[in-house]
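Long-time lurker, first post.

We've been arguing in lab meeting about whether MP5 would sit comfortably in this protein at all. Half the group thinks yes, half thinks no, and nobody has a model to point at. So I'm putting the question to the forum: if I give you the sequence and the SMILES, can you give me back a predicted structure of the complex? Inputs are below. Any interpretation is welcome too.
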Amino acid sequence: MTGRQHTPPGAGAARQAEHAPTPPVALTIAGSDSGGGAGIQADLATFAALGVHGASAVTAVTVQDTTGVHGVHALPVDVVLAQVDCVLADLAPTVVKVGMLGEACLTLAVARLAAAGRLPRLVVDPVLVSTSGHSLAADGVTQALRDHLLPHAVLVTPNTDEAAALLDVGPARSVDEQADQAQALRALGATTVVVTGGTVRTAAGADRVDVLAEAAGTHVFRSSEIATDNDHGTGCTFASAAAAFLARGESTRDAVLSARGFVRHALRTSAGWRLGAGRGPVAHTRTTFLDPPASPLTSPLTSPLTSQGAPR
Ligand SMILES: Nc1ncnc2c1ncn2[C@@H]1O[C@H](COP(=O)(O)OP(=O)(O)O)[C@@H](O)[C@H]1O
Ligand SMILES: Cc1ncc(COP(=O)(O)O)c(N)n1
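Top reply:
Settle the argument with this. Predicted structure of the protein with MP5, as tokens:
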């Protein structure tokens, strides 16, 4: 017995009818999170949930779970660049998303690729410190990001702490300061900057505020906070969702709005989970965000998707 099944007549034709259209391709250059909540794992799960084929170049292996980061092991720069080179040559991604780079020498090497025009529609999530408080960036990374990589990005997605570190100022104390920091970062050369993760106390609890700075001005996106312990990897998920929506043909501002909606949906879906002893992952793939799945990849997303992230 070989275990091979008899193929009924006509099954070939049925298989052919199931062929899906070729998906857009995005490349993520980021660190591995062994717990599967953030980093490369979050990026690939998000790309998959949004109908985008994800290729990856691993920059570092972190020993990590829901309780924190227990070790960081950087890969040699030439090994990272070799992964990027072969993916660029074979799969021709139309969007590149960068997360944890870890070392200044790697940040400079990726910036050189960007300066040479080899990283199309670059989305940079300037990962510096994990939510659990562990450094994910060695000395010199902040400066290398600010001076060499960010100017090549179509979108930069720091949280409020990362924005403050990149500008070498204190964290924003108001939405106005968050907006000023988004514009100050944009002045460094990126096309669009969104500073995420601002919190404003309200009578009902709190609102989460993301501020987008682009040439046309500043936009404040504000929605109620979702109560959950499962928020590990929200920043990676937000940036990779924005990259996926860009790959699907959205404008940068729409991609940011759609990414907000995706993260909020993923946070709501996982709010009751118990995965691990710490802060669990968001529900990257347990989502019906894009249903009905038959929607063509090239068509614009329907209005309910973008309105989820709209300011109120
Ligand atoms: N508890 C929450 N409720 C609603 N939105 C959230 C919550 N936590 C994070 N977000 C949203 O997730 C996205 C990324 O979050 P952020 O906290 O900035 O990520 P990180 O700190 O991991 O980089 C932003 O759109 C932010 O507003
Ligand atoms: C490999 C890797 N990349 C990025 C993050 C940031 O994610 P978070 O802010 O949720 O800790 C992380 N913890 N690990």
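For your lab meeting: The domain at 23-307 is CATH 3.40.1190.20 (UDP-N-acetylmuramoyl-L-alanine:D-glutamate ligase). Residues 131, 159, 196-197, 208, 210, 225-226, 228, 231, 234-235, 238, 260, 263-264, 267 surround adenosine-5'-diphosphate (ligand 1) (CB under 6 Å). Whichever side wins, do check it experimentally.
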